[in-house]
Amino acid sequence: MSVRTAVAAGGNAPEADFSHATGRLKPPLPLGPLRAINAVFEKVEVTLLVTILLGMVALAYMWCRMVEAAQAKLASGSGAPERWRAKLTTARFFMERVLPETGAQLARIQSGAGSTMELPAEGF
Hints:
69% helix
């Protein structure tokens, strides 16, 4: 039944058959493979979150090194002082506004993907 026919017959469009638009419909997967996919998803999600956390920590380390270099350049009077002050201001911004996100990232890692995967397959 097309969408137009379903609406004309008093039905609603979401119940219409869209198999002509999507090709042949695939049968639903049994729950066993879905659970295995969920387990893989959890591992991938945690891996991604850990990678983001480590990236933020690496950026913080590099900003610390840049601050040391900028302070040394300011103390020696070499280069453009406004550039080194801008570098210090940017580093302060990173440490005050971006780096605290690592706490939230760590909380995401520790909480796991249980709530993400709680919805049963039939709910999709």
